[in-house]
Amino acid sequence: MEISAEAAKMLAVGLAIGLGSLGPGIGIGLIGKGAMDALGRNPEARSPISTNMILAIAFAEAVAIYVLIIAILLIFVV
Nearest CA to 67 among 12, 6, 29? Predict the structure, then answer.
C-alpha cells in the first residue's frame, strides 16, 4: 500500500497542528491553575496576578499561532 504525496502532506499538517497545539493548551491550563491558586492565597494581589497571567497566556498562545502558520504554509507551499 502506497501513500500519495498529497495524503502525506495532509497527515503532516494534521500532526503539526495537533501536536503543536498540545503544548500551548497544557501551558495555558497550568497558567490558569497557578493564577487561581495564587488568588486563593492572596486575593489582594489580584491586579498584578491577572496582568502577569494574561501576559503569560499571550506568549503561550503565540506559539500556537506560529504552529498554525506553519500548518498553513505546509498546505499551500509544499
Answer: 12
Looking at the chain, the whole-number percentage of residues with pLDDT higher than 90 is 92
- Domain 19-76, classified CATH 1.20.20.10, yes or no: yes
Q: Is 26 exposed, middle or buried (0-12, 13-18, 19+ CB in 10 A)?
A: exposed
What are the structural domain ranges in the chain? 19-76
For residue 37, the model assigns a pLDDT of 96
What cell was used for 23?
Answer: 503544548
d(CA 70, CA 73): 5
pLDDT band at 14 (very low <50, low <70, confident <90, very high): very high
